[in-house]
């Protein structure tokens, strides 16, 4: 894990480079609100979004109170992303897994908290049509993982104008096809074995053989943007043309340290 001072320095640089939102993962639990606070302190204008916090690892009351404190202290620059995870996460929490009902109840708790989380300040890691519909009704919108521009188009058609569509987009700054796809497979392989992600990919038109052995070239090329900055920019444009409002970039395959060089190279795409 990077040194906290290095993280703060990198966040300040990203803010100066013009990155409008800094996304941080939250499914592993831990002090996710503390992570948000450190990034908000290090930046002046960039928003900080949790992408996403598992409802099974964080009590709604705690998230609501922490989110309110961050908004008051840092000019309402915090966005709370929420996910229902998978049956294993629910079992670990000692609960049955009923995704729509569970998330609906969790949103109810956020609404009833002493400092409620406004719908415009929360979004869902929705993949299926019913969770997407819930996100459109009760949150700012959706932050889907491992999706194509065609998925963004379908989400926009379903949600209509207004709700935020902010897809996650893995990127590899590598022109060599073998090296790029190898890096992508090393990152995505675990997720391809998870049932809810596999179902999402099947809905997007991928077959069983596409999901095997770390993902077919067709799947990898569809959900990972690799190549030079111009090629990656074309994928971002494709999402925007399909109806996405914001595209969250995640540099993969850059080694164990923070990919600061790649972030600098990609900075022109932030405008």
TrEMBL record:
<feature type="domain" description="Luciferase-like">
    <location>
        <begin position="108"/>
        <end position="246"/>
    </location>
</feature>
<dbReference type="InterPro" id="IPR011251">
    <property type="entry name" value="Luciferase-like_dom"/>
</dbReference>
<dbReference type="InterPro" id="IPR036661">
    <property type="entry name" value="Luciferase-like_sf"/>
</dbReference>
<dbReference type="InterPro" id="IPR019922">
    <property type="entry name" value="Lucif-like_OxRdatse_MSMEG_4141"/>
</dbReference>
<keyword id="KW-0560">Oxidoreductase</keyword>
<protein>
    <submittedName>
        <fullName>LLM class F420-dependent oxidoreductase</fullName>
    </submittedName>
</protein>
<dbReference type="InterPro" id="IPR050564">
    <property type="entry name" value="F420-G6PD/mer"/>
</dbReference>
<dbReference type="Pfam" id="PF00296">
    <property type="entry name" value="Bac_luciferase"/>
</dbReference>
């Amino acid at each position: 894990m990077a040194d906290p001072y290095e993280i703060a320095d990198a966040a300040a640089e990203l803010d100066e480079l013009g990155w409008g939102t800094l996304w941080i993962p939250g499914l592993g639990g831990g002090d996710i609100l503390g992570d948000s606070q450190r990034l908000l302190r290090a930046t002046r204008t960039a928003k900080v979004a949790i992408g996403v916090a598992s409802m099974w690892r964080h009590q709604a009351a705690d998230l609501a109170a922490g989110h309110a404190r961050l908004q008051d202290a840092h000019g309402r620059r915090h966005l709370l992303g929420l996910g229902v995870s998978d049956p294993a996460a629910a079992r670990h929490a000692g609960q049955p897994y009923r995704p729509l009902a569970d998330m609906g109840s969790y949103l109810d708790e956020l609404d009833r908290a002493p400092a409620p989380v406004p719908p415009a300040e929360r979004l869902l890691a929705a993949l299926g049509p019913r969770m997407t519909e819930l996100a459109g009704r009760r949150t700012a919108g959706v932050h889907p993982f491992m999706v194509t521009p065609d998925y963004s188009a379908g989400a926009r058609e379903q949600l209509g104008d207004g709700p935020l569509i902010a897809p996650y987009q893995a990127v590899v700054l590598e022109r060599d096809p073998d090296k790029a796809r190898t890096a992508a497979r090393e990152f995505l392989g675990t997720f391809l074995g998870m049932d809810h992600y596999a179902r999402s990919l099947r809905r997007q038109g991928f077959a069983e053989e596409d999901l095997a052995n770390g993902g077919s070239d067709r799947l990898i090329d569809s959900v990972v943007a690799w190549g030079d900055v111009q090629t990656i920019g074309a994928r971002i444009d494709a999402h925007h043309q399909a109806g996405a409002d914001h595209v969250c970039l995640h540099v993969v395959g850059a080694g164990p340290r923070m990919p600061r060089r790649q972030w600098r190279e990609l900075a022109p795409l932030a405008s």
